[in-house]
Amino acid sequence: GLVCTMAANNETGVISDLDGIEAALAGSPALWMVDGVQALGKLPLRLAERRIDYAPFSGHKLYAPKGIGMLYVRAGAPFTPLLAGGGQEGALRSGTENMSGIAALGAVLAALEDGNTFRD
User: Fold this and answer.
1) pLDDT tens across 43-101, in order?
2) Is 91 a member of any domain?
3) 118 in a domain, yes or no?
4) Sheet holding 2-6, edge to edge
5) Concatenated DSSP letters for 20-89?
6) 13-52, pLDDT tens digit by residue?
7) Residue 29 placed within a domain
8) What superkingdom does the record give (predicted)?
9) How far is 68 from 58, CA to CA, in rounded Å?
């Protein structure tokens, strides 16, 4: 099975207890997807430390152009591309890359690594 949670809800302001959810999933074979769209740059997600299997992010929430995003997939988590064909991104997707969007999102992520949090 797949457990889907939000790290932070943009309408209610609720911030999920990811440590508590992780503890509840201990010993479960379920995969865990955490919607990180509202949390990136605002909350410490600690993806490398948690057993989160998948986490999608949207660049426009951090001032990158609309239409660019990324999907974190934990090493070893199963992943099958929706569309077959093409060799982009290690054969994980087909189609032409959005190079300007990728560059902009890369700049945002570099700013996050430099300590900018983009908090309002």
Assistant:
1) 989 999 999 999 999 999 888 899 999 999 999 999 988 777 777 777 777 778 889 99
2) yes
3) no
4) 2-6, 31-35, 54-58, 69-73
5) HHHHHHTT---EEEEE-TTTTTTS---TTTS---EEEEEGGGGTSPTT-EEEEE-TT-----SS----HH
6) 999 999 999 999 999 999 999 999 999 888 989 999 999 9
7) yes
8) Eukaryota
9) 6
pTM listed for this prediction: 0.85
Domain count for the chain: 1
31-35 vs 2-6, strand pairing mode: parallel
| Helix H or strand E encompassing 89 | helix 88-91
62: its two tokens: 């951090």
| Residue 9 DSSP SS3 | coil
> CB–CB of 25/44 below 8 Å?
no
CATH number of the structural domain spanning residue 60: 3.40.640.10
Task: Report how far residue 119's alpha carbon sits from residue 113's, in angstroms, rounded to the nearest whole number.
Answer: 14
